[in-house]
Write a structure and sequence with these properties.
Elements lengths: L1 H14 L31 E4 L5 E5 L4 E6 L2 E5 L5 E12 L12 E5 L5 H16 L5 E10 L6 E11 L2 E11 L7 E12 L3 H14 L1 E2 L1 H8 L21 H21 L13
Parallel strand pairs: 5-6
Antiparallel strand pairs: 1-2, 2-11, 3-4, 4-5, 5-10, 7-8, 8-9, 9-10
């Protein structure tokens, strides 16, 4: 399952029309412009699609086609070149970023864990553009809005525009960097919608409705967010009856809390004050 998640990185790069090239990591240190607020989204009619393996469901607009649905990853395309990809994950090793680096087994790339969320977004899409082989692709990040999830994950909503051989598009990514495990490996998780600029204004509400309708099965979401190495319980942590908490029980508790926070805070977009206390 892990290997399949890593391979989705390259497939998604092509699907999203060469998202992000030429954006330097240094540029991420510049303050992003204030986010442009979308108008209130009308009620968008969507037809529920269920992945054949039962791993996730999502709402599909009329005229759109699902092109993949397995292991929590759902991809679809619209009649005007729209593309949405959900449930994407990558394993990343803590280390110096190397442009153009190739995946090595489970590890898709290396990145400094302490890098900002914007730097991580830019690095991922630099790799995606390299995979498409389009030398003309360029991206401009318009806004980066943090999604506060305390120590559960480092998340944000990123709006931007991109150009390339396939034309110009606008995109929205809900992107998260999960905690690093004891072996220096962490996971990136994201949902993305890419819309040709010719239809972006009228299709943005539809795309956001699709993003928010994504519902991975609880076990699937826990698997998507699960670290490569199970976390160790903190010293003094108590389990049922006051006995020392086992690493297995602690890992299960962490997985449940992480998936709850990701589902409510990132996928459903619930405001911070409505999230469970352990998410904040």
């Amino acid at each position: 399952m892990h290997a399949r998640h890593g391979s989705e990185f390259l497939k998604f790069a092509a699907l999203a029309a060469g998202i992000i090239a030429g954006a330097s990591l240094a540029a991420a240190q510049q303050p992003a412009p204030a986010p442009q607020q979308a108008p209130p989204a009308p009620s968008i009619p969507l037809q529920t699609y269920s992945a054949p393996d039962g791993s996730a469901t999502v709402g599909v607009p009329a005229g759109w086609k699902v092109t993949k649905g397995a292991y929590g990853v759902i991809q679809m395309s619209g009649p005007n070149g729209e593309a949405i990809s959900l449930g994407n994950t990558l394993f990343v090793r803590n280390g110096s970023y190397q442009p153009g680096q190739k995946a090595s087994g489970l590890i898709a790339m290396t990145l400094p864990y302490q890098a900002t969320i914007t730097q991580k977004v830019e690095a991922v899409w630099q790799q995606a553009v390299a995979a498409t082989g389009d030398p003309t692709a360029r991206v401009s990040l318009i806004s980066a809005t943090p999604i506060p999830l305390g120590s559960v994950a480092q998340c944000g909503i990123f709006l931007g525009s991109l150009t390339g051989a396939k034309g110009a598009s606008n995109f929205e990514s809900r992107f998260c960097s999960l905690p690093m495990d004891t072996n220096g490996i962490f996971k990136l998780f994201w949902l993305n919608a890419s819309l040709p600029t010719s239809v972006a204004a009228q299709e943005r509400a539809t795309a956001e409705a699709v993003l928010s309708s994504y519902r991975p099965a609880p076990a699937t979401l826990q698997a998507l967010l699960k670290p490569e190495t199970p976390p160790l319980p903190p010293a003094g942590a108590a389990g049922p009856g006051g006995a020392p908490m086992s690493s297995t029980l602690y890992a299960e508790q962490e997985a449940q809390e992480s998936s709850d926070c990701m589902d409510e805070g990132v996928i459903r977009g619930e405001p911070e004050w409505q999230l469970p206390p352990y998410c904040r």
